[in-house]
């Protein structure tokens, strides 16, 4: 629990009154996060508009470093930073977009925004500040993610976050959740329930106020005010008058020329105005397409579902299919596969368009191959639907379109082959498709799609262990699309597997310069630095991985192990304890716990932890070795020999062999001890091993030191 506050009350006015009574550091800003205002990043965008101009004056390098975060959250700041999307994907022609961001992208954006805020506050001279987020229960998931990130990060010393919500728990958004604000609030903020204040008049006395003025005020507040008098006045208006007020408000907001308004208030007013099926759908489509294109999937899904509720398939077939296709694929990306399938089945039932059925078959196959959780995946059904898509594609009249759709149907089928462990067949399909597009398309046509095929081939080659060929393909894709960070990340991964760690470090650093911070890049960077002997650099990278993702167990294990090796046992203990809170059965953490308990001279507890580690993973050599050392220290030579035998069988490090040799020597098994000492001596040149080997040979009546290699 930190110094953050969670104020809960039904009405904003009551939350404000309570907050004013708290002893808080100076307030940097009070941010209204209600999604109806500007949609995704309503609060974040307000913050960025306020601080970015000054932040870039003080530290101009923050603009290029955080351009993606700034422009994703605050498109109005485009003139201040380099373009965020200049890759092949955005240079390609209309209809060529096939690459979409991971659903984790918005969490990475939030971490980048947190870095920007941290560095700006430091440039201001530091000191305590308070940042207030209001209406968080009405916020888009992007703002809820940002609030959660600011609450849990440990490198924002001096920042107090105050979160205002209604009295009920803040629900997680539907689908797969990357970070739960409800859980973060419970862990990092002090809850405070505000007492309700009396209304100046009851809703039934609405006639005592100027009802038309109150209704207009409600609409001009973008229908976010929780004053029941304003809402009652609005609802009392005739429907036509309400629609007219929404039209006026939409026009006023459009006149401001601020694009983020077109993601929140403008489509809301347009869909409630006098022309919902015209202006309303146009506004919803613009907002949905923008959000979907830059990875704001929760907002895109919400906008798409609202559009589908308005569109009339019989008179707006193109628009119906656009909303249907975009909404369903977005839902699938969010882990809401069942909702997507419902839409696919509905569309199949009402459409006889073969192209629609071709795309529906492809998308349905992807549900079974990729989007359903593992227990529900069905590769045979995926294959069935993909073959149907390929069959329909073969009937397309235009030869170039036929080639394109056929090749990408087989590209989808290649994914099924990979999932069913048939990499050779997947590779054949990809190479056949690449050759067909080269034959039947002009060199510049579908450049992005052809790059995707080569990227996919690189992945399959990597799975097959054909690393040099995989690297060649990845580098070719980098040359075509040099500013897409994922390509550099994958290059780094292949270089690591090839043992080219210095080059891998450069590739990971390049990926991070092009991207918001993401945990896997820092983790892999730390792993590569560790291989190069840069222990402190690796420790910093694992630490920042955990700053971005406290649940990253591999980083937790690696950092704890390094801290143990460096003698920083208190810090290592904290890592082990926090890690076991998240994963109490993690064998590596249990092993480290046993090691630390042994160093704290608590052999019984250490033995219990190590036995638990072995129970979770019988192939964990270090746990066997440590338990063997404890048995030796307790005088149990037979138990020590048993555990060290297993450790050597699994790991066979010189240290494990040396310890086993000592046990053998003290048990009188001199020949076995000598065999181990010889191996250790050959590997390390250890003088203690040389002396002990001589003693064992002497005990066996064999020549001693003179015959031992120097």
Describe the structure.
With 710 residues, this protein is mainly α. The chain contains 36 helices and five strands. Strands 2-3-4-1-5 form a five-stranded parallel β-sheet, sandwiched between helices. The protein is globular.
Question: Can I get a quick summary?
Answer:
The protein is mainly alpha-helical and 710 residues long.
Helix/sheet category: mainly alpha
| Overall average residue pLDDT | 94
Molecular shape = globular
Strand order of the largest sheet: 2-3-4-1-5
Rg from Cα: 31 Å
> What is the count of helical runs?
36
Distance between the first and last residues' Cα: 59 Å
- What fraction of the residues are assigned to beta strands by DSSP? under 5%
- Give the uncertain stretches in residue-range form: 200-207, 706-710
Helix content: 55-70%
Main beta-sheet annotation: 5 strands, parallel
Number of extended strands = 5
């Amino acid at each position: 629990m930190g110094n953050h506050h969670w104020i809960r009350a039904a009405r904003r006015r009551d939350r404000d009154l309570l907050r004013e009574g708290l002893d808080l550091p100076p307030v940097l800003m009070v941010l209204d996060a209600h999604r109806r205002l500007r949609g995704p990043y309503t609060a974040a965008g307000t913050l960025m508009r306020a601080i970015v101009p000054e932040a870039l004056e003080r530290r101009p390098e923050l603009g290029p470093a955080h351009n993606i975060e700034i422009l994703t959250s605050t498109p109005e700041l485009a003139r201040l930073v380099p373009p965020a999307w200049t890759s092949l994907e955005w240079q390609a022609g209309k209809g060529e977009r096939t690459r979409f961001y991971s659903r984790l992208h918005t969490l990475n954006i939030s971490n980048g925004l947190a870095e920007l805020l941290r560095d700006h506050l430091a440039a201001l001279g530091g000191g305590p500040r308070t940042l207030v987020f209001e209406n968080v229960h009405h916020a888009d998931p992007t703002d809820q993610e940002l609030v959660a990130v600011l609450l849990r990060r440990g490198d924002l010393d001096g920042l107090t976050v105050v979160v205002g919500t209604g009295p009920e728990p803040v629900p997680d958004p539907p689908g797969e959740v990357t970070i739960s604000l409800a859980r973060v609030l419970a862990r990092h903020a002090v809850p405070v329930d505000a007492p309700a204040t009396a209304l100046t008049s009851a809703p039934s006395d609405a006639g005592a106020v100027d009802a038309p003025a109150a209704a207009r005020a409600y609409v001009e507040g973008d229908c976010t005010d929780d004053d029941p008098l304003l809402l009652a006045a609005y609802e009392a208006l005739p429907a036509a008058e309400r629609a007219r007020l929404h039209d006026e408000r939409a026009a006023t907001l459009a006149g401001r020329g601020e694009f983020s308004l077109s993601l929140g208030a403008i489509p809301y007013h347009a869909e409630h105005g006098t022309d919902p099926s015209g202006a309303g759908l146009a506004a919803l489509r613009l907002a949905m397409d923008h959000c979907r294109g830059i990875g704001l999937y929760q907002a895109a899904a919400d906008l798409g579902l609202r559009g589908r509720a308005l569109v009339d398939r019989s008179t707006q077939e193109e628009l119906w299919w656009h909303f249907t296709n975009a909404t369903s694929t977005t839902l699938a990306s969010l882990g809401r596969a069942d909702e997507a399938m419902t839409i696919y089945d509905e569309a199949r039932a009402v459409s006889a368009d073969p192209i629609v059925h071709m795309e529906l078959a492809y998308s349905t196959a992807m549900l079974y191959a990729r989007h359903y959780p593992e227990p529900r995946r069905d590769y045979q059904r995926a294959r069935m639907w993909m073959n149907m898509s390929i069959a329909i594609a073969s009937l397309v009249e235009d030869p170039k379109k036929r080639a394109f759709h056929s090749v990408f149907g087989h590209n989808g089928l290649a994914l099924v082959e990979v999932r069913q462990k048939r990499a050779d067949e997947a590779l054949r399909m990809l190479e056949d498709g690449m050759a067909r597009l080269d034959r039947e398309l002009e060199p510049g046509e579908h450049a992005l799609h052809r790059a995707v095929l080569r990227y996919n081939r690189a992945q399959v080659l990597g799975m097959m262990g054909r690393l040099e060929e995989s690297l060649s393909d990845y580098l070719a894709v980098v040359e075509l699309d040099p500013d897409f960070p994922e390509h550099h990340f994958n290059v780094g991964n292949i270089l690591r597997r090839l043992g080219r760690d210095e080059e891998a470090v450069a590739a990971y650093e390049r990926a991070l310069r092009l991207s918001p911070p993401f945990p896997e890049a820092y983790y892999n960077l730390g792993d590569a630095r560790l291989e190069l002997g840069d222990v402190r650099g690796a420790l910093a990278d694992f630490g920042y991985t955990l700053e971005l993702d406290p649940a990253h167990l591999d980083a937790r294990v690696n950092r704890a192990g390094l801290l143990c090796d460096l003698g920083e046992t208190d810090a290592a203990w904290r890592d082990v304890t926090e890690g076991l809170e998240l994963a109490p059965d993690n064998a590596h953490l249990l092993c480290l716990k046993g090691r630390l308990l042994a160093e704290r001279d608590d052999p019984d507890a250490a033995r219990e932890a190590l036995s638990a580690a072995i129970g979770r993973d019988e192939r964990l050599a270090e746990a066997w070795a440590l338990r063997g050392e404890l048995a030796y220290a307790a005088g149990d030579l037979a138990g020590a020999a048993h555990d060290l035998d297993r450790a050597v069988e699994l790991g066979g490090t010189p240290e494990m062999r040396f310890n086993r040799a000592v046990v053998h020597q003290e048990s009188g098994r001199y020949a076995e001890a000598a065999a181990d000492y010889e191996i250790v001596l050959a590997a390390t040149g250890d003088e203690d091993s040389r002396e002990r080997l001589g003693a064992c040979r002497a005990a066996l009546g064999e020549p001693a030191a003179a015959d031992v290699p120097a």
